[in-house]
Backbone:
């Protein structure tokens, strides 16, 4: 039984500031011995990708998680495809979820853009995600705001399965950070910062150096009127305030006070400094760890052994409940 389960895809660019603030900074800070964290490579196959790149990104994303402070001596860190039970449970849950509920998923609508030639995998993505979480009987799922609807679906699937086949799964609860739960693209303030969709200028890539980070933040789209204030008609400034709040721990209100009458220049300079300050130790640690990918691979294999034992426990009950012959 895991306290927490969460995952990140080895998709698109390297992880960005949104992934860090919305998700894995908290995984590292809050980690407990029965937490399970996963690089979800099977999810990254749902959009067109290059096989060799997938392998490289999988190791790189795992390295970022370690650099951010996931400690393999405390929690379990592994790669999704190393534990075959994820695919097995996903199939079983595909026979519990309905096409109606999957069609309502906003991420599918956004990523498919109405096209019929996207993969079936993209359509059933949230079911695989439900399998990831339910396999470990996770009580909590620390995620960004964009995953709220998928988590609702995981809960519905768990409840339906329990009702139909008898109590089997823990019904998971999502948790969100107080700030930074939905960091927006720096150039397209109406879209979230995204590994696979955003342009390089729209994201603070964790792999960027400090000068590139500063340049991108200084060029971030702001709004007309020079006031540093969160408001519906000021999405750019609101995003930067949320970002700075997440990085410094101050509230948006405190920050509005601090920058009153100062214009955007000083505001952006301080954001860049604060972001680089928070990322500096993580970037340094990444560079050290990336020098020895073999050591990271070993951590992942040990993690998979631990995860498999937990997953196998759940699957014994599931196979029995759904009527599969032993
Ligand atoms: P992709 O574009 O390929 O879907 P992504 O940037 O959305 O990539 P994921 O791997 O799908 O990243 O998500 C990993 C975690 O990061 C999830 O918990 C998700 O909620 C969180 N997350 C993703 N984008 C943001 C964001 N812009 N702000 C805050 N959290 C985010
Ligand atoms: Mg995503």
Residues:
């Amino acid at each position: 039984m895991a306290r927490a389960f969460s995952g990140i895809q080895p998709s698109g660019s390297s992880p960005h500031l949104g992934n860090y603030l919305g998700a894995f900074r908290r995984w590292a800070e809050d980690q407990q011995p029965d937490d399970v964290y996963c690089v979800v490579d099977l999810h990254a196959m749902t959009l067109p990708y290059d096989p060799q790149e997938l392998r490289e990104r999988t190791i790189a994303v795992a390295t970022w998680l370690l650099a951010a402070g996931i400690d393999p001596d405390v929690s379990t860190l592994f790669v999704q495809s190393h534990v075959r039970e994820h695919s097995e449970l996903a199939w079983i849950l595909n026979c519990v979820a309905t096409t109606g509920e999957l069609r309502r998923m906003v991420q599918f609508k956004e990523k498919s853009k109405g096209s019929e030639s996207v993969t079936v995998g993209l359509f059933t993505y949230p079911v695989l995600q439900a399998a990831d979480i339910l396999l470990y009987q996770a009580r909590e799922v620390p995620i960004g705001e964009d995953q709220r609807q998928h988590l609702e679906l995981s809960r519905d699937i768990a409840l339906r399965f329990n009702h139909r086949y008898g109590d089997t799964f823990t019904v998971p609860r999502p948790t969100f950070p107080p700030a930074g739960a939905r960091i927006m693209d720096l150039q397209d303030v109406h879209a979230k910062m995204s590994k696979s969709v955003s342009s390089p200028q729209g994201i603070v890539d964790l792999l960027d150096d400090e000068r590139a980070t500063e340049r991108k933040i200084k060029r971030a789209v702001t709004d007309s009127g020079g006031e540093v204030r969160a408001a519906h008609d000021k999405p750019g400034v609101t995003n930067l305030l949320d970002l700075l709040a997440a990085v410094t721990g101050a509230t948006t209100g405190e920050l509005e006070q601090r920058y009153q009458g100062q214009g955007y220049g000083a505001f952006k300079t301080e954001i860049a400094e604060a972001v680089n300050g928070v990322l500096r130790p993580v970037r340094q640690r990444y560079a050290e760890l990336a020098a020895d990918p073999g050591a990271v691979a070993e951590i992942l294999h040990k993690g998979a052994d631990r995860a498999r034992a937990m997953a196998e426990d759940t699957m014994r009950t599931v196979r029995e409940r759904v009527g599969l012959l032993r």
User: Anything to note?
Assistant: The chain has a mean pLDDT of 97. Strands lie at 5-8, 36-39, 76-79, 140-142, 173-175. The domain at 5-177+292-322 is CATH 3.40.50.620 (Rossmann fold).
